[in-house]
Amino acid sequence: MPLTRIVYCSELVKNIGSNEISDILDVSRENNAKQAVSGVLLFNSDYFLQCLEGSRAAVNRIYCRICCDQRHHNAQLLAYGEVSQRLFGAWSMAYVPWTEATRTTIAQYSSSTEFNPYQMSSESVIKLLEELGQLLLTSEH
Ligand code: FAD
């Protein structure tokens, strides 16, 4: 089964607290690890950007479940396809919190200073994810 990557963005339906983000991460890490799925979740106060990588069947199954989750809506695929290597192989679901450093990194790949993944090209999104993967590795060592 080919290694497949799904990248999507979505919008919050309401303000959710850090507890809910931490619940999402806990469930994600447990479920994804069981299915050898890795990825990253980026969240600011309005939008989610998430990357899932693993077998085609697993990432599609998880993505379909995520799309039914009423904590967010308007999920839009930004990139989908087979890949030769994982970007987030070390994490069942890494989390990138919204910090000044995150904002600065994102600004390199966006046409405006505000983070709006719906406005980003697939190419910019993948480059952003590559950079975030490197930053996560560096910050853990
Ligand atoms: P249940 O928790 O029983 O869920 C049943 C249904 O209710 C599902 O459709 C679920 O989406 C929805 N749901 C669950 N909790 C709530 C809530 N508090 N408010 C509204 N609806 C709710 N899961 C993963 O396994 N891997 C991931 O990488 C992942 N990433 C996510 C990213 C985002 C941005 C969000 C919002 C959710 C993510 N989830 C992820 C959670 C996922 O949507 C499911 O809640 C989870 O996988 C458990 O689903 P379930 O059907 O087993 O069980």
TrEMBL record:
<protein>
    <recommendedName>
        <fullName>BLUF domain-containing protein</fullName>
    </recommendedName>
</protein>
<dbReference type="Pfam" id="PF04940">
    <property type="entry name" value="BLUF"/>
</dbReference>
<dbReference type="GO" id="GO:0009882">
    <property type="term" value="F:blue light photoreceptor activity"/>
</dbReference>
<dbReference type="InterPro" id="IPR036046">
    <property type="entry name" value="Acylphosphatase-like_dom_sf"/>
</dbReference>
<dbReference type="GO" id="GO:0071949">
    <property type="term" value="F:FAD binding"/>
</dbReference>
<dbReference type="InterPro" id="IPR007024">
    <property type="entry name" value="BLUF_domain"/>
</dbReference>
<feature type="domain" description="BLUF">
    <location>
        <begin position="3"/>
        <end position="94"/>
    </location>
</feature>
